[in-house]
From TrEMBL:
NAD-dependent epimerase/dehydratase domain span: 3-212
InterPro entries xref list: Epimerase_deHydtase, NAD(P)-bd_dom_sf, NAD(P)-dependent_oxidoreduct
Pfam families: Epimerase
PANTHER family cross-referenced by the UniProt entry: PROTEIN YEEZ (PTHR48079), PUTATIVE-RELATED (PTHR48079:SF9)
SUPFAM superfamilies associated with the record: NAD(P)-binding Rossmann-fold domains
Taxonomic source organism: Kutzneria viridogrisea
Highest taxon of the lineage: Bacteria
Listed name of the protein: Nucleoside-diphosphate-sugar epimerase
Length: 322
């Protein structure tokens, strides 16, 4: 299969591209700059110049492919309406290029669209009051193409997709612990958080392209319910510092970012049992706590990355979905 990929140079993208190539597929990757084009070529893929806002380039890439994997997501996070508009427009451009062909379109969302406080499944509708409600319109746009002759599916990734050079939420916890000399959690820390190893997420994306039925919602979750306290305790062990329980207000100051404090206060366990049974997907790589022990999370470079991403602001930056 020849696959057109958006977000191929982001945090998860290179691992996904490698997974597709190893399985015998060929890949064309959207590239919005010369540097991105060079990065796409270095991964063994062919660059396709364009951007999320260049809808003609998206349509052209999709029309020339046997399937499309959409992982890119970008814009100003202080303007959710703009995020929604850009993502929906990109998905609609990709989907219309595939209409009536039976070819696959796999789009990316996050498990944080589900209702907090219970174990959510693939069958659960997204919650319009969720912290990630801005991803719902993209999900619905993609799944709507299942009625238009497109084998469309959505992969909801866990909020933590861990692996080398991670610049997501967990590195922000580590950076805050280094700054404060204490590894913190909110309240009793019993709130639950899903995670998946990046290599397992990559294999799920490949399987979705190859055989997910039209209209499928898939959960990219290797671990359903890791407590935030257990993450904080592992960080404390690695840094040889104490743990501490904080209020939400204290956590906002500790993390230097109220947005992060709200995220880490959520109880958002998620099941992927249906996804695993449907596609024969078996997460097999390191758990999050194992990765914290043996990975690169505690290198100086990791802390610098986290500080650059999360301390100044959580606004305008282009995300390629983790």
């Amino acid at each position: 299969m020849h696959v057109f990929v958006t977000g191929g140079t982001g945090q998860t993208g290179p691992t996904v591209v490698a997974e597709l190539l190893a399985a015998g597929h060929t890949v064309t990757g959207l590239a919005r700059s010369e540097a991105a084009a060079a990065r796409v070529e270095s991964l063994g893929a062919t660059p396709h110049r364009g951007s999320l806002d260049d809808l003609d380039s998206l349509r052209g890439g999709a029309e020339a492919a046997d399937g499309v994997l959409h992982m890119a997501y970008g814009g100003d996070y202080a303007d959710p309406d703009d995020l929604i508009r850009r993502d929906r427009a990109a998905i609609e451009a990709l989907g219309h290029a595939l209409t009536g062909s039976g070819r696959p379109l796999v789009s990316t969302s996050g498990t944080l669209v589900t209702r907090a406080g219970r174990v959510s499944t693939e069958q659960d509708a997204p919650d319009p009051d969720s912290v990630a409600a801005f991803r719902i319109a993209g999900e619905q746009a993609c799944l709507g193409f299942a009625d238009l002759g497109v084998r469309s599916s959505v992969v909801r990734l866990a909020p933590t997709v861990h692996g080398p050079c991670d610049y997501g939420f967990v590195p922000a916890l580590i950076a805050a612990a280094r700054r404060a000399g204490v590894s913190a959690y909110i309240g009793d820390g019993a709130n639950r958080w899903p995670a998946v190893h990046r290599a397992d997420a990559a294999s799920l994306f490949r399987l979705a392209l190859e055989k997910a039925p039209a209209g499928s919602v898939l959960h990219g979750v290797g671990e359903s319910a890791i407590t935030i306290k257990s993450i904080a305790e592992q960080i404390a062990r690695m840094l040889d510092i104490p743990t501490a329980s904080l209020t939400l207000e204290q956590a906002s100051e500790h993390l230097g970012n109220p947005f992060l404090a709200r995220f880490f206060s959520l109880d958002v366990p998620v099941s992927s049992e249906h996804t695993q049974a449907l596609l024969g997907w078996t997460p097999e790589h390191a758990t999050l706590l194992e990765d914290l022990k043996t990975g690169d999370y505690f290198t100086p470079e990791a802390s610098i990355r986290a500080e650059e991403i999360w301390l100044p602001r959580h606004g305008s930056h282009q995300h390629s979905q983790r």
